[in-house]
């Protein structure tokens, strides 16, 4: 297989990929994934390594030393390159799993938990009161919701353009049934992970009620697959929303984090998360709900789309 073709197949889709990732992280991730595939290293192993490097990056943001902070920035870039590589490796080797998806999501949470804690301690040494922890927690909670909804909307888009095999879209009803089948006595670790992922999925569904009704409608109406004209129309309407999922994800927040560290005002990161990225999150959710309501109405009132 030609390298360019293999690289393209390692991507999720051009619709959902961010330009910085296409230019920078995905090419690096592809090279890492290629080496890992030859060595037999699994995607989950790459993810776990990224967790340690990302947490180290957060710790290195604590000292008020630009040189040390710069090492932390490099570590965070490496961690995200590995985070890109694990997904590309999973697609290249067809070694995708729900555990891998959960670990991938937890990796970013660990990185940014370390970053938030480091900035809180750093800010207190700079003269902030303990109130900085309120802003650190508020920014952390905001980050969790922003990342969860951005990931969910991407998976929804991938479901429409690639189907179930190209998407990792889950629903809480199926997850709840799987969770109930596990035993705390015999499957403690699996059940613990399943409980966390179930809560995560329910959070995504809570913030997208119209989307849930829309998904239920299409699964009921089109059990054998979506009509091609329906896929094309949804993709056209939904693709512009993907840029908002990118804005509230890794690259934008990290570019500004690096800026705040360069000017020695790391505390600004919390306020950027709360007062800049949260309004974008709200707008993204409102727009996605609008698209869902539009197509739900078309399905229920017109005969434009016929089942296969």
UniProtKB/TrEMBL annotation:
Entry keyword set: Membrane, Transmembrane, Transmembrane helix
Annotated transmembrane regions: 35-60, 66-82, 102-124, 130-153
Keyword match Ribonucleoprotein: no
InterPro entries xrefs: CDP-OH_P_trans (IPR000462), CDP-OH_PTrfase_TM_dom (IPR043130)
Coiled-coil portions: none
Protein name as annotated: CDP-alcohol phosphatidyltransferase
């Amino acid at each position: 297989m030609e390298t360019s073709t293999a690289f393209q197949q390692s991507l999720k889709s051009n619709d959902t990929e961010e330009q910085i990732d296409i230019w920078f992280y995905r090419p690096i991730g592809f090279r890492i994934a290629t080496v890992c595939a030859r060595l037999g290293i699994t995607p989950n192993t790459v993810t776990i390594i990224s967790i340690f490097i990302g947490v180290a990056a957060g710790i290195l943001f604590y000292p008020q030393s630009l040189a040390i902070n710069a090492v932390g920035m490099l570590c965070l870039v490496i961690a995200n390159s590995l985070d890109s590589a694990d997904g590309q490796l999973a697609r290249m080797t067809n070694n995708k799993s729900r555990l891998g998806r959960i670990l991938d999501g937890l990796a970013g949470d660990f990185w940014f938990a370390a970053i938030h804690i480091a900035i809180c301690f750093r800010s207190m040494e700079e003269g902030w009161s303990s109130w900085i922890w309120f802003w650190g927690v508020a920014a952390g909670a905001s980050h969790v919701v922003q990342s969860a909804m951005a990931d969910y909307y991407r998976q929804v888009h991938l479901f429409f353009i690639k189907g179930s095999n190209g998407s990792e879209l889950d629903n809480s009803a199926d997850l709840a049934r799987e969770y109930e089948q596990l035993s705390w006595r015999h499957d403690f670790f699996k059940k613990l992970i399943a409980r966390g992922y179930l809560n995560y999925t329910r959070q995504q569904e809570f913030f997208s009620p119209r989307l849930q009704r829309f998904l239920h409608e299409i699964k009921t109406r089109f059990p054998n697959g979506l009509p091609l004209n329906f896929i094309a129309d949804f993709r056209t309407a939904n693709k512009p929303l993907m840029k908002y999922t990118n804005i509230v994800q890794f690259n934008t927040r990290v570019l500004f984090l690096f800026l705040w560290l360069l000017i020695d005002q790391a505390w600004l990161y919390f306020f950027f998360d709360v007062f800049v990225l949260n309004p974008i999150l709200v707008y993204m959710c409102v727009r996605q709900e609008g698209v869902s309501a539009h197509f739900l109405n078309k399905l229920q009132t017109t005969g434009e789309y016929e089942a296969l």
